[in-house]
């Protein structure tokens, strides 16, 4: 029997299915399962001739799957290589092997991907974009759209084909000590980036002052006192407060934003915040 080999055209088609459709029919029950199925469909159709074989192979990928989608492309590429090996009669590759690998990689890949992509890369690009948007310029938005999509597309494409090339050799790297070290270091860098972006683009200051009767100059400017103790203290307090609401109280971002609106409204009424509006 001739050795079956997935064509580059089919691999590219599979990658595009994942790139555009990894959140296909997304739900809390299935997450990215259907996106995974659509990405594996071209692979299975090329490797197997009969509908029965194709159905049996596709059934493997009906198991639950969810991870960070950009770096998670690596997992799809790995399973494409494993499916090719199974089609060529590799006895060690079966449903249990493939799903065990997928389940084992979901967590580590999500940990690295969330820290690297969501926690570091996106805030950096957003920070640059906001700087370019000063004065209402549309350049910042255009910059973000172009840079993010180019990085996401070519980065995911590289991950897919590298996963296909490495196969199960990538597993040891992702779940071993090196992978743990990467997740930890990227998490630290991501935290620093989030802190820097927050300090730069979320300037929260108080307008609270105390003035003696008959005098023009205030004897107490609360913001100056706070800056003398800890510059950006109110910003740090609000950022930690938002984190606490979402991480500890499990509030959605929309509810957190509504709470911030209420705090801002009451703060302006009480004279603690100055919106800087002029009429």
UniProtKB/TrEMBL annotation:
One of its GO terms (cellular component) is plasma membrane. InterPro entries: GatZ_KbaZ_carbometab (IPR050303), PTS_IID_man (IPR004704). Pfam families: EIID-AGA. One of its GO terms (molecular function) is transferase activity. The chain crosses the membrane at residues 109-129, 141-160, 186-208, 228-247, 254-273. Keywords: Membrane, Transferase, Transmembrane, Transmembrane helix. This is PTS system, fructose-and mannose-inducible IID component. The lineage of its organism: Bacteria, Bacillati, Bacillota, Bacilli, Lactobacillales.
